[in-house]
Structure formats: C-alpha cells, structure tokens
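TA notes. Do not distribute before section.
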Amino acid sequence: MKIIRRATLSDLGTICRLRIQRTAWLTARGSDQWTVTGRGLPIEIFAQAVGEALDAGETWIAEVTGEPAGTITVNDRSDPGLWSPWELADAVIVHYMIVDVRFAGQRVGHRLLAHAASLARQRQRHWVRLDAWTTNTDLHDYYRRAGFHLARIAGPAASGPSRALFQRRSDSWAFEPMTPVLTHVPLPAAPQPAPEAHSGGR
C-alpha cells in the first residue's frame, strides 16, 4: 500500500534523516548539494525551517507499506530573487523533496510532484514551480523527465546555490475527474529505472 499523508512534528527526525542520507549519497557522486562547503543549510537550520513548515501544515510524507519513503513541502514562498511576485501568485512552490534511496525507482518523487499539482489545482493556481541546485545537472535532467522545463537560471539578485528554476503547468498532470484531494493519496506502482529526485533548496 502506498499513500501520501500530511506530515506532523513527529516526522521531523525522519525528514532530517532523509536529508542526511541524500547528502551522503550526493557527495559520493561528486555533488556539493546540501553540503556546508556548497553553501547548503546546516542540518540544524534545515530542521528549523522544516519544523516551521510542519507547523503550517505544508509538509507531506509518502509511505510505502507503512514506511516513510519520501517527503515534500509545498507552499507559495521562495527565497528572494528567484520567482517574481506574479509568478508566486499563480503557483505552488516545491521545497525539500527527498526520496529515501531504498525506494528509488518506485516513482515516489513523481507522485509527490503530482500531489503538489493536486494542491495547486485545489488552490486554483496554474503552475508548480521549484528551484533546483544550480550545478546538479543530473537533478535538472530528473525534473525534465518529470515533465518540467527550465524557466531560467535566476540572476544575481538570487545569491543562493539553488538557482535553476523549473516549472510545469498544474493542469498537465492526468487527474481523474472529480477526485478530491485526500489526506491519504494512493501512489501508482509503476517502475522507474532512474534514481529518484532530491530537490534543490538549501
């Protein structure tokens, strides 16, 4: 059984564990994403940011047979200098999407992104937007395979390490008509050969 549920404060430790796990996975492959040397957020600051998102009800957990397999945070905010005010007003913004490496290839990341699109449609917003780590071209390719396109690399007003801006229209996902957005959302079981994603964000 695969579901998506709203995360609670009790999930904070799991989300931090996923972040640490993925950072090690990325480092082993030569990426500086989320590392201190790459100007990623220290885990303590990351935990504080996620804790605030949990309090606001903005974070979700994907479960596979009852075990946390991935996480995503969805809201309407971004770091300064990334998206313009009008782009934020017509979109939901994805943050901290991380899939447990043990569940890579099970399309957990794709379903989390589809859930973000469901939230966008529920809020009558036309776009799902996100920032990806600027130098992680493998991650850029992942989002392209997931149906996103590169809007631009943010300019000098954005000083962070995650400046590759991707977007996809929220109505481009196939949704069953009249299906409500539920607390528990079924996940498809189709296989995915490539490693699952780990969004930019600091």
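Switch to the second chain here.
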Amino acid sequence: MRVISQTVRVNDPAEPVRLTRDDVWAALERKAADAVPFVAGMDACTVLERTADGLVREVVFHGERVRERVVFRPKARVTFTRDDEQGAWVIHNDIDEDEDGLTLTFRAERDFGEGAEGEAAAGRMRAGYLLALRATLELAREAVRAAGPSA
C-alpha cells in the first residue's frame, strides 16, 4: 500500500466567504451522499444503506462500479473504504486546524502497483483529489452564499 495526501487551506485571504468547520463538515456530508458534483470522473453515486456512523454507497468512477463503506467522525473525518475482489483502499478526508486556520486533507492508502506505472497512477489520483478538495470548498462557499447572512 502506498500513502498519498494533499492538503489545502480552507480559507484563502482573497476569498470573501469564510468557511467554518461546520460549513466544511456539511459539504463533506453532502459529498459522501452524492459525490458527483464534487469529484470529476464520478458518473453516479447512490446511497445503498445508512448506518449509525455513516453509510454504504455505490459509485461509478470512470466507468468502474465500486461499493464503499463511509464512516463519519463528525466535524473531523470522513473515511471511505473499499475492499473487494477488484481492489482495496482507504481514503480519509480530514478537517484540521493549524496556526493559520482550517485545512482540508485528502489521504489515500492504496496499492498503485510498482514502477513508473504505479507512480503515474498515484500522481493522477493526487492531482484529481486536489481538484476534488477545491471543488468541495467551492461548493461549501456556494451553500454559505445561498443561505445568506446569518441572524
């Protein structure tokens, strides 16, 4: 298994809409239930079952149908796990905070294969997930804008 990760700052100083941990968490919950607007290449996402701590979903990503178990650790982490005859992975989306504010991190543990082909596959996933992190934050901002000013 290889580990890859990407971290982005939640609030860019140039962005007027400031997201809170609650705003980012709400976006991650929406992404777990319907990843299509958040992840390029995601063709379908169907919740099959809701559980006490998450859900089970079926996604179609670049034409491949995959079942994932999604576990919520409220306001901190969403974990996506696949373990079937075609492959296995664990993906975490973590909301953290450092001295500069909130961060959102993607971390994947997956077998990408060996050599140049494995490196290229890991690079594609890292780049794709950077786009997904940015999309998640933009969709969170859109939801905050749509909700309007709080009382």
